[in-house]
Amino acid sequence: MENFACCQLLPLILFSLQIWSTYFILPAHSSLDNFLYGGCSPIKYAPNSQFESNLNSLLTSLVNSATYSAYNKYTIMGSSPQDVVYGLYQCRADLAMPDCATCVARAVTHLSPLCPQTCGGAVQLEGCFVKYDNVSFVGVEDKTVAMKKCGPSDGYNADQMGRRDAVLAGLNGAGGAYRVGGSEDVQGVAQCVGDLSMGQCQDCLTEAIRRLKAECGGAVFGDMFLGKCYARYSTGGAHAYSRSNNHGSFHSESEKTFAIIIGLLAVVALVIIFLTFVRRCCGGNGK
């Protein structure tokens, strides 16, 4: 009877955890939470499997780490190779830690409805990127086009496009994984995921910038997201990529959210421990 009661409680506990994460951990939407793209593996995992438990542990670790670091990667080992889960997140480098933590928590909540019971998934929001898979991708360059978006053209403005090309050339020639530049009314930003070497990063950004110029032509803005890097530009204020101005009120809300996340991470950890106990009860029922 006790084993049966444990099993009956499991769906209720999982549902309650989902409600908590959706309505209490996360704040109202901001521009950093805007969904840009997502993708899923075609391979499914079994519900209540060791892989699912490992994935939950991985995602909890990603959210936890984002409270103090703009990038991190994790590997959760299993008793067999098919239970291993690899994952990482990357926040935009100009974000404060409360903003990063909020963005990663929001991205993680997108994964379950977007990629239900899949062995791999990725979500790119305006402010952060989260990815997991059962096959190691960490340190592997990926120049596959994940998303391309070109704005409208207001007629070819040679001076403006000249400044655009100069800004993109400056991004391509700059060092580091996060690069910003501007000239009058033109802004540009580029970033690699932190698992790439500097050589891999440069190779990825060179390709992203090449494609951006070739495929967006005279568009007022352009976004080119490859698997492990992106390059973006905006002219005439069509987009604002920097968080350096006019975001005091957002930080105020983010700092409150940051405190909530810290407190609730402890609750999530306790729930995971309890779920492990419940699974053992359910397992015992079958003996």
TrEMBL record:
The name under which this protein is listed is: Gnk2-homologous domain-containing protein
Q: Where in the cell is it found?
A: Cell junction, Plasmodesma; Cell membrane
Q: Please give the CDD domains that the UniProt record associates with this protein.
A: Gnk2-like (cd23509)
Which domain of life does this protein belong to? Answer: Eukaryota
The cross-references to Gene3D superfamilies, in alphabetical order and at most eight, read: Gnk2 domain, C-X8-C-X2-C motif
**Residue limits of the Gnk2-homologous domain?**
33-137, 138-238
Which PROSITE patterns does the record cross-reference, listed alphabetically?
GNK2
**Chain ranges passing through the membrane:** 258-278
Q: Does the keyword Zinc-finger apply?
A: no
Q: Which family does it belong to?
A: Belongs to the cysteine-rich repeat secretory protein family. Plasmodesmata-located proteins (PDLD) subfamily.
Which first-to-last residue range defines the signal peptide? Answer: 1-21
Q: How does this protein lie in the membrane?
A: Single-pass type I membrane protein
Keywords assigned by UniProt, alphabetized: Cell junction, Disulfide bond, Host-virus interaction, Membrane, Repeat, Signal, Transmembrane, Transmembrane helix
